[in-house]
Amino acid sequence: MSQLDPKGGYTGKILRVDLSRRKYRIEETPRDLMIRFLGGRGFIAKILLDETAPHIDPLSPDNKVIFATGPLTGLPVAGSGKCVVGCKSPESGGYCDGNFGGYFGPMLKYAGFDAIVIEGRSERPVYIYVEDGQCEIVNADDLWGSTTSVCETTLKERHGRECAVACIGPAGENLVKYANVIHDYGRAGGRPGVGAVLGSKKLKAIVVRGTGEIPVHDLDSLIVMLRDVVRKLRDSQFYDTWTRQGTMVTILWSNENSCLPVRNFREAVFENAHKISGEVMEKFLKYRTRGCFACPTPCGNLCRFGKHVVELDYEQVAMLGANLGIDDMLHVAYMVKLSDEYGMDTISLGNVLGLAMELYERGLITSEDTGGVELRFGNAEAATQMIEMIVHRKGIGSILAEGVAKLVEKYPEARKFAMQCKNVEISAYNCHIAPGMALAYATSPIGAHHKDAWFISIELKNPDMSIEEKVQKLIWMQNIRGGLFECIGTCRLQWVEFGLDLDYYIRALRAATGLEITLSDLMTIAERVYNVIRCYWIRELGHWKREYDYPPQRWFEEPLTSGPRKGARIDRETYEKMLQLYYKYRGWTEDGVPRKETLRKLGLEDIIEALRASDIELPD
């Protein structure tokens, strides 16, 4: 980058809130942070490594929760409604973040801040109210215990309909380890436990309201580019299908391609997938589409059944439907609604319930353990009852609230069919036929999650790719999805689903910030972010083992027993070769530890010293 002083894209301010002292302060956004890490995930990773002590209890006052925008958030750029929230995960013990759309991120910047850093713990329930450069910590005794929709509605009535609210539900209050943050009545983020960390801090919600402007280097260029992009996207042949079904188009695609999670990922083809498909949703439940801030391709499927309104997407329906053997679309929608109201991640929930059902059917969990609930695959009523038990930590629900890894501790036999990486539950793609996607899950910096690399589509379309090509393409995709998009503050779906050229985002960054940034610069930033996060994990665990980058045993040891890909499984030797190449191309050791040379090339000498201060000496 030829210029090192952004002319726009940032407010230049970070809000820091200390809940223990009930005080706040405002700091300038460090220039070094903007240049080297851009925003979003980059800000969160660097702040956590710099400002938190090693080995803290994630649910202690010492943990920090950071809401961070990117330089394009809130600007006239396609899909610029993203905000990233992160902390140390109470589920994995490592790095954790998640992004959510809607309007919270843009409103935070209009209120004058690039990020909020929250630390400490309140003695009683509170919420944070931010408006145009000011902050107030407000008692929330009356909101504690409320569902997310009740909380959001109450706060909007109190502070104005135009304010943005991010809140937790009873799951976060009760420290369910996969509780998340809910915004805009169903936009969710932070699945590896951000909601539980906020609950431990007695922080019910953050409300932001702003009327300010975001500095922009070349606003006219941004507007012209956006108009052109909107026209191109709406002329796409895929536009009509996408706006009718959004990500729900993936249900039948995954089923046809033998990668749908079925009955705790035992199988990859669901015999009744057509009953929970996008077509069924569109015909019987959906009443309108909604999008996030500046979204030219809205994908939100607002569905109405009875008195309930819920937004459905692929991950939710796959995990609470096919993965549990449930084919009743109304009941799946109801479980999604419950999860959103309680502030609990649907991906992890579906995974935990799937494992519990398998344990029950294998006789390892009994009806005595479940309080008489027949926790079998396909039993929608039982799944709903268990959701209530998890949220309120009743009976076996208290164990399930801890996540898959804790279930394995209690039932060691479950290790072979526990679907997790780094103690975080796998999201909704079965990888018996897809070693590249398995590698994407296993090396994701937050534990098993598709957001860093939805590699399965490329892998299935290109069956003749060499191992080397797969790994190189995967790292490139991780750097784009998890590096570029998680840092700049925009949605990636316009790129993923409509083929919007990456050059658009580079030109938008130049117009917004005035920085002469290139794709090469962005890839360097992405590599920097991935290395910082890996170093954070190493610091928190005190070591690193190759096995932490392995996918679930089931994909190696249990071939599919039905469907067109019957007999398929991942070849362990092939996976080992891919992982070895992954480490090589990342500049890490054969055990997955970043080398000093790699960090120095990325300008991360300070990270080497930070780990040395924790008695961790990285290899040369």
Compile the SSE list and pairings:
Layout: E1 13-18, E2 23-28, H1 31-37, H2 40-51, E3 65-68, E4 83-88, E5 95-100, H3 104-110, E6 115-119, E7 126-131, E8 134-139, H4 148-159, E9 164-167, H5 170-173, E10 181-183, E11 187-189, H6 194-200, E12 203-209, H7 219-234, H8 239-245, H9 250-256, H10 278-284, E13 286-290, E14 300-305, E15 308-312, H11 314-320, H12 329-342, H13 346-361, H14 380-391, H15 397-400, H16 404-410, E16 420-421, E17 424-425, H17 435-443, H18 456-461, H19 467-488, H20 493-498, H21 502-513, H22 519-541, H23 553-557, H24 572-586, H25 596-601, H26 605-613
Parallel strand pairs: 1-6, 7-12
Antiparallel strand pairs: 1-2, 3-4, 3-6, 4-5, 7-8, 9-10, 9-12, 10-11, 13-14, 14-15, 16-17
Helix pairs in contact: 1-2, 2-19, 2-22, 7-21, 11-13, 12-14, 17-19, 19-22, 19-24
